[in-house]
Amino acid sequence: MEKTGKAPPKSIVSRLGEIGSLTASIGMDLAGSKLGGFFDTQIGREKRSLDSLARNAAKLAGTLGNLKGAAMKVGQMLSLYDAFLPKELTEALQSLQSAAPPVAFGEMAGVLAEDIPAYRNWIGDISDEALASASVGQVHRARLKDGREIVIKVQYPGIERAMQSDLKSLRLLISLIATTLPFKADSKALLDEVHTMILTELDYQKEAKNQQAFGSFFQNQEQICIPAIIPELCSPRVIASTYEPGHSLQEMDSFTALEQSTMGIIIFEFLLDQIFFFQQIHSDPNPGNFALRPNGQLVVYDFGSVKKIPPLLVRGYRRLLQAALIDRDPKPIPSILKEMGIHKHDQSPIPVQVIQDWFTIYEQVFYQEYCFGSGNANRLIRQIRELGQRHFLESLDLVFPADLVFIDRTLGGTFGNLAKLETCAHFGNLIQERLALYSRSDI
Question: What pLDDT is recorded for position 248?
């Protein structure tokens, strides 16, 4: 019997208390670290702040996970910055990528009945046990009276009010953590971006439209399966779609090494098509949102977090890849990045030497066949960290547009999934093929 948990705390006071206590604890520790390092170097002070966060790792992950809602979602986002945060912190936060304890169906049935009073006119039976549970709601299998198998996702009761409250109180916590990250940005713009994207996930009607748009765009690609929406069973807090099972990325024992690698290539090409053609990305790369089938199909779930990519950034990515992969010339890259809004705090371009150093790392991934095996993935992360330390002062002076928060989240999560699948390919060639198609399109 699957263990069930409680719905997210409904008391706003209790949620404020938990987040407030966590923020105060981390804030006092960070303040103490900075005071203790008053006569230390800038790098030394930053290291003290990171060590402080590491000491609070378990408490941070535990509190954010128990609250679910916006708190858990913020923790999931932070976990993707594993190249910049202490190992102890990212390991604790990565636990938030796993499914949360499900809530008893009795608590969820009330939301379903309130939003769709006549749902029994369509549904013959519905499972009491959750198929999956996450930060905003959970999924149950059901069967329509016409025999079709579906899944129906229902929001936790009271989660919208809790999310609104969480985001207000989390602003200070996020600001504190942001002081430890090795880059700068407009903190208000970043927080506003996080705020908007997280609240968007509460609107299941918008999610249904996102899912239909993805389904329409990828309908002719046999390798991609987007579950079809059941419009009669969708509302602001309920979304239903066809049941499309597959093996999760944690169940890869069912596939050969070649099949795993082939699936990874499909995931990578799916990302490229989103960026260069659809210009919208599925921006929640949690491994649980993808499933793989023996027939070679990739099934994609959960379209609550979808980010439109501004044309300026689409053009910028194309020009970056042209310079890096085809021309193999780093010199134009600082000016391209500046046009994309990525530059030093004083508006000057990133030094070309910094770009050249990054070339030495990424050429092994894109200039030849590369395998994202666990050993290579760990080595790549280590190299990124070492280079980050070498250019620490430059990175502290780096600013970037808020749009990149969810785009980079998607890129980082995708590469993490490629590592899980131990994908081998000549990724540079795959990108160049897509760029050639892009140049011939009307987009």
Answer: 85
